[in-house]
Amino acid sequence: MASDILLEVNGLTKHFPPVAFSRGPVVRAVEDVSFAIPRGQVVSLVGESGSGKTTVGRMVAHLIEPTAGSVRFDGVETTKLSRRELRRMHARVQYIFQDPFASLSPRMTIGEILTEGLDIQRVGTRAERQERAVAALTSVDLPPDAMARYAHEFSGGQRQRIGIARALALAPELIVADEPVSALDVSIQAQIVNLLRDLQVRLGLTMLFIAHDLAVVEYLADTVIVLYLGRVMEVAPSRQLYAAPRHPYTRALLSAVPSPDPTRRAARQLLKGDIPSPANPPSGCVFRTRCPFAVEPCAAGVPALREMAPGHFKACIRDDIDTA
Amino acid sequence: MTAVSQPIARARSAGPIRRAISRFMGNRAAVAGLAILVPILIATVTYDFWWPYKPNDIDLLAMNKGPSPTHWLGSDGVGRDVMARLLQGGRTSLLVATVSMVISTAIGFFVGAIAGFTGRLVDGVAMRFVDLAMTLPPVIFLLVLASIAGTGVLPTIFVISLLSWPVLSRMVRARLLELRERDFVVASRGMGAGLWHLLFRHGLPNTIDILVVFATLQVANGILLEAGLSFLGLGVTPPEASWGNMLNSARSTLVLENYPWQWMFPGAALILTVLAINFVGDGLRDAFDPRAELN
């Protein structure tokens, strides 16, 4: 039963219908996204705001239902599970939220927050659940006496560690981390990223790491998926993506990463305009409206993901720019 | 911005409820309301241990007599002790108000919570039903219900509870619709939480402010409704005492002019109690104000 691939996503699509009784357009948040995560690896979803990365993460964690496509977890198709099977599945995939101030209930003590999932899943006795909660707390470097306190007494970084502990308490096989550091001070970001890295290595966690910041991703991810307007633009092993990005969008993203080397600053390539509305996406390649290399045929058809090098895919018809 | 972890001194900390209580105790009007309410409650509950007269005992030598050392608040037209009837009436009024408050709060919470936490269909159906209940003119609805249910303590409780829950269910639903999208509730669902878990671990604690305030004000409202119904002869009927029917039996001009103690005391008790409960309710609302949580 244990295969190498823990999570396999195929043709995942999410359309949000307009509000009832109004004739608004359908919002195409995610369109035909496919990827796989091997056990013990970290795959990162990257894209700017509105690219659909959170929606993909929430579908993977079964928080929202996909419009179409399949999510196979450990060989089991999860989009067609009964309510009971789904509850058990929930214990195996856990989610870390972006905003540590919204993700912890202000009316529960840390102990209650950490044992909540164990209570829901009816794991062990009361004492065992307490024990596991304390263990989760210590694994994120917080003292056990935090159990009796409330979330508002902690700083942002501490709260995010509590959020991580909550996800760990259920001993999940897959963790979906939705921009876990972007709401934190820069000084604390490094702490949290290091903590996640440590935990990932120590516990052999499989992780879907969502981020808009490529600098953070470079350090954590084995494979990077670049999303734009709900579609995959480029997939590549982390090192290759940074060394030789092939999609114009990835290049623009990479050139926005601040560099400590002042001589490299000149190469910055800025994108003009905003991401188009997912309610009314451009025809053909969705990136063409902002792409510096766009040509006429880009509007004609949606470019397919093509393998350019082993494990390196891109959805772009311009191969002549690869060496640029 | 501060780096690393800040030291935390206290081992145990005050929860949101405890902080609300301390804010409540700082509110003078609310504490005054409580100071009026608690003695009234104690007196009505315990009066048969320390007051020599029973509410329906007739003293034929003391008909329509004013306040005196034996009958502190005088006696009524058939020689019954006004003090005893006042306290028994208070007991009836508070019982009707409290029980109907419990029922209407429970109905209001569950209808609102289920509408707020389940799908669009259930929500739509429940809310149209609530709309229906809210558009009925309350006085007429009350009279029709009362004439169907009959008189007495139980029907009165039934009628009052049935009239009062829709407003609460609206408020609870509105709060939960917002709560449902909050990350910590999403997290709870992501851990496999079912409806009951969401209702009691998240729904109830996060609407407790609405419930407490509604419940308090509903007691005051219930007392007034009971008095109104009884005054119209549709609530608690004589010889059983309630503040409403004491006022009713004292409404002839003869009594109004000549025996003011027969209506003044139940009237005063009614006003004082309702006012005190309203002060307490206002105090609770301020104490639970989410804006105060920020401090």
UniProtKB/TrEMBL annotation, chain A:
Which processes are annotated in GO (biological process)?
Answer: peptide transport; transmembrane transport
Q: How does it sit in the membrane?
A: Peripheral membrane protein
Places the protein is found:
Cell inner membrane
Q: Which domain of life, per UniProt?
A: Bacteria
Residue intervals of the ABC transporter domain:
7-254
Taken from the record, one Pfam family name reads ABC_tran
Keywords carried by this UniProt record: ATP-binding, Nucleotide-binding, Transport
Q: Name one GO molecular function term.
A: ATP hydrolysis activity
Q: Which GO terms describe its cellular component?
A: plasma membrane
Q: Which NCBIfam families match?
A: oligo_HPY
- Protein family (similarity comment): Belongs to the ABC transporter superfamily.
Spell out the protein name for this chain.
Peptide ABC transporter ATP-binding protein
UniProtKB/TrEMBL annotation, chain B:
Short name of one Pfam family for this protein? OppC_N
Q: Name one GO cellular component term.
A: plasma membrane
Give the way it sits in the membrane: Multi-pass membrane protein
Chain ranges of the ABC transmembrane type-1 domain: 90-281
Q: Where in the cell is it found?
A: Cell membrane
Tell me one GO biological process term.
Answer: transmembrane transport
Transmembrane residues, as ranges?
Answer: 29-50, 94-118, 139-164, 261-281
Keyword list (alphabetical) reads: Cell membrane, Membrane, Peptide transport, Protein transport, Transmembrane, Transmembrane helix, Transport
**Source organism superkingdom:** Bacteria
What family does this belong to? Belongs to the binding-protein-dependent transport system permease family.
PANTHER family in UniProt: D,D-DIPEPTIDE TRANSPORT SYSTEM PERMEASE PROTEIN DDPC-RELATED, OLIGOPEPTIDE TRANSPORT SYSTEM PERMEASE PROTEIN APPC
What's this protein's name?
Answer: Peptide ABC transporter permease
